[in-house]
Amino acid sequence: MLVIVDDNVDLLEALKQLFSITHEVSTFPAGKPALEFVKENIGKVSVCILDYAMPEMNGIELARKIKAVDKDIFIIMMSGFVDFEKVEPFLKERLIYQFFTKPLNIPSLVKTADEASRLYQRRRTF
Fold this sequence. Notes:
The protein is α/β, with parallel strands linked by helices. The protein has 5 helices and 5 strands.
């Protein structure tokens, strides 16, 4: 299952339609309800696609809280405002699996999410 969090509801809807073809998808416009959903669905959520810049809780804060619930979940971060140098340390510490700038490269995002979902399933079976 994929969880997508972005305060841009138009982007959320577009990504939900895109990923619903091959995945079960839940979308949230804010971090708190997404985190509660992950807690309620431990072992079912394999990938979280998070926006970096959101009100209340940014994507890095949310990623840390999600990883505290399930360390195996893959976090894909996206942002239209943050440059790679700012998120590079989070990639190195493996908090984030992949980072995408907006506008999104949709084929690459889909490929990355599919790959992460398969890797999560493999981790859970061993």
